[in-house]
Backbone:
């Protein structure tokens, strides 16, 4: 890992219109992503976690402009991605590739593996047909399949093997950044471990930078150098993986971590069971979006959105427990115990 | 209150599907039991036969193509494999109830929550309409749903995934069954909602003394909820024993590999252990130990004979030749497995 920044995201937003009525007029919007900022350093793995619908996939897709952002900036190696023309964007996709959750849905069932893997090279006009076929065979071996698999169709592979094909496809253009959206969540535990190990090996071998989106906190801790926790379209906390797990600051992060079942029957955990459901992003709560479920809620929380701030070097948190308003207002404030998740 | 009495006792169960590709032995000679008031976990990866096992107990194996081709299923002493469909309808919901992974598929979108709950009771002749309504509201409250009265007239799509799963649990509990089968009840839910549902299930187990058969692929869920575990692989039980022992001292090479493959959130490992190869399709391995082609300890005998279950401690057994006392040559290996 270096200290050089590969990707920088500033105040990224995506509002999906909700249409209704006979005329299909816009009657509201889903605030899928509501002002997210972060940086990714060259060679690191940034994990993004959060529960269903919090905006992880939308964020990931916006980075590649598979979804157009409503607002905000994305800089890749100091190029402003949001300003690129369609053709320049296509060129940039050589450097930024995506791996998807469902290996079934993301591979064309009517194409051979060879055709699937060659596709990105053709799109970018890389190599002669012979060189491309050679490269396909090379990559199949690299991801732990065999070159004779090139002539087979996706349905002839197991889920884990299909995910290896998905990874091989992403690697074809020798990208710098790979955005992996739930790369192992459709896989069995024993296969999941194989794919995670493969991703780590490839990262070392090709100096890859990863953004890994996942809802499994164990997986994210294992693979990430830094982790961002999202809640209802916003980043609640962002810091090094070790710190996040050992000393979470945000009440949501604490609850989320304590909710994860630990594979050890003798482990006595201090579990914080949150009440209530995740609110809808079309009608998010005022102020801090977490205030409807937060055990530390204060008056200021319902009124003012807490900004993501650097509380300690490299540890960012968006919560009034750590702002001046919060400290001033905090009559009923109790600071969460540190290291609750020991 | 736990007793030694078995609510469910399954012996030698075999279930096959007869498809175009021939007979698929989904469940191949499995034995297990659930004691009164206990929580039993059944774990294993996709396709190992967990759901087929639970559907067999419920008498819900789709026939054709599926068929129970051998074994016994005794519920409170009564044999179910030979019970009439009429008798099974009385038993389902009454003595044993089941909840599924995706609650939406088991709730009818066209009927209100209230009418579905009341129907569940009226089918089993649990009192009149008024009593059914009263009890439905009580059940919704019991499973921790706020505004239970109003929810009676809600439709399933108006509820979140977690609320729907609570409704399913309420529906399963209306007739106060002695056994609740939960097939991946939290797999479709977010982790904070999963924590709520697991807590609810633990509470019901304690308060109502309902035995629970918890089917899951998630070792964390098992560790948190179950007293005893049955580990399945390719249609067979490969290890069974108390949860604490199995996690502390897994015996079968598959169990051990599985536990080590899970990224534990408490520690950062440099590299995960991973079991080589793929999860086999049922029926694809005809001879020998089903795990042999992925097992680092496999020796000749493993590829020729089917290992039986060896009893290794009180209430703990393992289907692996490394635990055959007569198998002198492999004792070293077994110690490696254990260490
Ligand atoms: N094309 C779309 N039109 C309207 N709303 C959308 C669209 N795509 C996503 N959303 C909404 O935006 C929010 C964020 O969705 P997103 O897919 O980013 O969530 P996620 O964090 O990836 O969740 P999951 O863990 O379930 O994959 C959700 O409320 C979702 O319903
Ligand atoms: N309706 C069906 N028709 C044919 N085969 C089936 C059917 N249901 C299940 N099977 C077979 O039984 C095996 C075990 O399935 P199942 O019990 O659902 O696994 P799991 O452990 O994931 O719940 C599957 O691999 C499948 O081949
Ligand atoms: S800002 Fe307030 S409501 Fe939000 S997490 Fe912090 S204490 Fe809780
Ligand atoms: S019987 Fe042989 S192949 Fe099977 S698990 Fe034991 S050692 Fe491995
Ligand atoms: Mg997603
Ligand atoms: Mg199943």
Residues:
């Amino acid at each position: 890992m270096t200290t050089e920044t590969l990707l920088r995201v500033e105040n990224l937003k995506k509002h999906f219109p909700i249409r209704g009525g006979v005329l299909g007029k816009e009657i509201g919007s889903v605030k899928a992503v509501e002002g997210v900022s972060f940086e990714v350093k060259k060679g690191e793995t940034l994990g993004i976690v959060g529960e269903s619908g919090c905006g992880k996939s939308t964020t990931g897709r916006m980075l590649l402009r598979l979804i157009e952002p409503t607002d905000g900036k994305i800089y890749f190696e100091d190029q402003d991605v949001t300003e690129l023309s369609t053709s320049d964007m296509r060129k940039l996709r050589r450097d930024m590739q995506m791996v998807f959750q469902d290996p079934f849905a993301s591979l064309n069932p009517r194409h051979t593996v060879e055709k699937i893997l060659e596709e990105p090279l053709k799109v970018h006009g890389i190599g002669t047909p012979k060189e491309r076929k050679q490269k396909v065979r090379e990559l199949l071996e690299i991801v732990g399949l065999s070159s004779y698999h090139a002539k087979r169709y996706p349905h002839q592979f197991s889920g884990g093997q299909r995910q290896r094909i998905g990874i091989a496809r992403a690697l074809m253009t020798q990208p710098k950044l790979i955005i992996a959206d739930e790369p192992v969540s459709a896989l069995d535990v024993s296969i999941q471990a194989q794919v995670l190990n493969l991703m780590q090996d490839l990262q070392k071998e090709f100096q890859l930078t990863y953004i890994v989106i996942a809802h499994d906190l164990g997986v994210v801790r294992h693979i990430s150098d830094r982790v961002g926790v999202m809640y209802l379209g916003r980043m609640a906390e962002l810091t090094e993986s070790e710190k996040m797990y050992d000393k979470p600051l945000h009440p949501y992060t604490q609850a989320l971590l304590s909710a994860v079942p630990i594979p050890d029957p003798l482990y006595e955990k201090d579990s914080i069971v949150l009440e209530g459901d995740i609110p809808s992003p079309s009608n998010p709560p005022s102020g801090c979006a977490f205030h409807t479920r937060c055990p530390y809620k204060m008056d200021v929380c319902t009124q003012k959105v807490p900004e993501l701030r650097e509380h300690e070097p490299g540890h960012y948190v968006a919560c009034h427990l750590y702002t001046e308003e919060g400290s001033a207002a905090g009559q009923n404030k109790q600071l969460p115990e540190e290291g609750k998740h020991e | 209150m736990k007793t030694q009495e078995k609510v469910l006792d399954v012996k030698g169960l075999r279930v096959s599907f007869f498809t175009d590709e021939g007979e698929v032995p989904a469940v191949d000679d499995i034995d297990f039991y659930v004691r009164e008031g206990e929580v039993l976990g059944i774990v294993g990866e996709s396709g190992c036969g967990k759901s087929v096992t639970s559907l067999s107990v419920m008498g819900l194996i789709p026939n054709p193509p599926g068929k129970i081709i051998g074994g016994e299923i005794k519920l409170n002493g009564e044999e179910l494999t030979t019970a009439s469909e009429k008798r099974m309808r009385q038993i389902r919901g009454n003595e044993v109830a089941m909840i599924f992974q995706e609650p939406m598929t088991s709730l009818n979108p066209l009927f209100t929550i209230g009418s579905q709950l009341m129907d569940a009771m009226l089918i089993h002749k649990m009192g009149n309409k008024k009593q059914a309504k009263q009890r439905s509201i009580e059940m919704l409250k019991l499973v921790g749903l706020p505004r239970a009265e109003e929810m009676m007239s809600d439709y399933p799509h108006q509820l979140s995934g977690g609320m729907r799963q609570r409704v399913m649990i309420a529906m399963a509990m209306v007739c106060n069954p002695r056994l609740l089968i939960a097939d991946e009840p939290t797999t479709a839910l977010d982790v904070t909602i999963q924590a709520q549902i697991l807590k609810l299930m633990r509470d019901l187990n304690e308060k109502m003394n309902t035995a629970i058969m918890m089917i899951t692929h998630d070792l964390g869920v098992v560790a948190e909820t179950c007293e005893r575990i049955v580990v399945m692989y390719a249609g067979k039980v490969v290890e069974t024993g108390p949860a604490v022992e199995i996690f502390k001292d897994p015996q079968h090479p598959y169990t051990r590999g599985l536990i080590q493959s899970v990224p534990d959130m408490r520690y950062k490992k440099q590299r995960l252990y991973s079991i080589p190869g793929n999860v086999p399709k049922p029926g694809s391995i005809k001879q020998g130990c089903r795990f042999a082609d992925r097992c680092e300890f496999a020796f000749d005998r493993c590829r020729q004979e089917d290992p039986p279950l060896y009893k290794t401690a009180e209430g703990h057994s393992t289907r692996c030749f490394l635990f055959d006392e007569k198998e002198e040559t492999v004792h070293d290996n077994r110690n490696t497995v254990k260490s």
About this structure: Chain B touches chain A through 46 residues (CB under 8 Å). The mean pLDDT of chain B is 90. Chain B has two domains: 6-226, 233-338.
